[in-house]
Amino acid sequence: MSGTHRRESRLAYLRGKNLRPITEPGCTTAVFSGRRSHVVAPVDGAASERVWRVAELRRQLAGVLNCLDAVILPPELSDAAAGARQWLEEITPADSLDPAPAYVRSLEHTLRITQQLLARHTVAAAYVHLDAERPPWPEHQHLEAASAPYCQHVAVRQHDVAVHSWPLDQRPGFARLRGDIEEGRVQLLVVRSAADLVPAGLSPADQKRAAEAMGGWLRQHRARLLCADQITPRHAP
User: Per residue in 150-181, is it b (16+ CB within 10 Å) or e — as a string?
Assistant: First the structure.
């Protein structure tokens, strides 16, 4: 049988089975005639996860380096900070759509040691709001213990009593530590929870906006916020 006859015979067979031939480079197959065929390149889920992980690690490293610029490092550690910045600015994966696992592990290691470097040289301030007049020192001791992995030491301790309805800029205790943050003497603000920083009675949406505004103000001064009630044992700063 000639090639033309064989093809006509095959087409007749497919029509009888309600199938039609679909031909793509390197592939000939048959599908139900009621459906439209789409040739889709295989998706590597692991590669997609690594792409996302690299972007997240670089975002975190940029934030840590921004805060690291506000601390005083001894000269012997300047090379470590420069090496971390080189990872952020110059070292990229050979294939941005499929980063090698070894690259991701190296970036994770760089972020981890940079976080540890920042923590060892960060000076913190602790702030507590008390509902009633009582000694604040037990609360400060709790905050110092919680923040120990995240800072060199807590240098400033302030509190306010029964002013929970007041905005922060009207609280005398917080006003006393504001200058330390704005002038760069403090790089970490430690509180029991974000509720200590926002007026009582706000709606959840307003509380969230107030907390975000506080975070933005701290970032302007290369400082961070640490809420003791959100600390998990898995993460260093």
Answer: bbbebebbbbbbebbeeebeebebbeebbebb
Conformational region of residue 162, where left means phi above 0, alpha means psi within -120 to 50, and beta covers everything else: left
Is residue 210 within 8 A of residue 198, CB to CB? The reply is yes
Q: How far is CA 39 from CA 24, 26, 104, in A?
A: 8, 12, 31
Q: What is the C-alpha radius of gyration for the chain, rounded to an integer number of angstroms?
A: 29
pLDDT in tens, 114-152: 999 999 999 999 999 999 999 999 999 999 999 999 999
What is the 3-class SS of 92-146, one letter each residue? CCCCCCCCCHHHHHHHHHHHHHHHHHHHHCCEEEEEEEECCCCCCHHHHHHHHHH
Helix or strand or coil: residue 175? Answer: helix
CB distance 235 to 201 below 8 Å? no
